[in-house]
Structure formats: structure tokens, C-alpha cells
Design brief:
This protein is mainly α and 149 residues long. The protein is built from 7 helices and 2 strands; from the N terminus they run αααββαααα. The protein has a domain of 99 residues: Winged helix-like DNA-binding domain superfamily/Winged helix DNA-binding domain (Arc Repressor Mutant, subunit A), CATH 1.10.10.
Length: 149
Amino acid sequence: MLSKSCVYALRSLVFVAHNASCSSKIGIKEIAKELDLPTPYLGKILQQLTKHKIIQSIKGPNGGFYIDEESQKIKLITIIEVFDGLDFFNRCGLGLKECSEEHPCPLHDDFKIYRERLLNLFSSKSIADMVSKIEVGDAFIQNLSRGLV
């Protein structure tokens, strides 16, 4: 449902929010290594996040990435909109161009419920919400072979 770029963006944002701060930034190579992501691809994703002021970036020897407190309040739907747009939340489950209440596809009613629930989830959860689940040990964002962070 979410593109690879969007999933990588979400994972990297949560990782950076959990592991970095304004005084202790984290570099792209470390993010890529810890999340098992390709560095060049991650670089393009982080560039987009920086451009949209979702993540902060400092260049130079003490540079790297971090997410300020205000940005941690950003809802997941904002990140999804940057990478995938919001068309999914209006799209027909079977890909019909003209699917509506008046002219429904066989999945219309069920898919509408699914879309609405996802939209509500992504609109209500923030980066900080995801980080807090990691901090209390209820969730992780790294593959098991990497350890639980």
C-alpha cells in the first residue's frame, strides 16, 4: 500500500527521532547501516524530508540529521502525502475510474471502511507516538538480525 520510499522515510524518521538530537546528530551511513537500507536511496529520501522541513540537517564534520520537537509532532499522513500523495484514500479498490456510492464496484463498501480506518490512523499518529512505543519496549523498527531498537 505504501511505497518503498514512504516506508523507508517513516522508518528513518522514527530511528532518527529515537537516536539523535540537536546536540547529537546522526549520519546517513549510520542510519542506513542500522536500518539495513541502501545509502544512496536513503540519501534521496532524507533530501526530500529536509526539503519539506520534516527532518533537520547540518553539514560539516559535526553534521548529520536530527528531528526537533516540533517536527516530531508531525502526523504520519504528512509524510505519506510527500512521498505517495493522498490518492489512495479516494481510489477504488479494484482500480475502476468511476467507482462511487451511486456506481460501486463489488469491494466498494468494504474498501471504503478500510481506507477510512487507515486515513484516521495516519492522521492521528505522529512520529513521537511511534518513538514512544519503541522507548517503552512495545515496538521496534530494525530487523531482528540488527537488534531491537
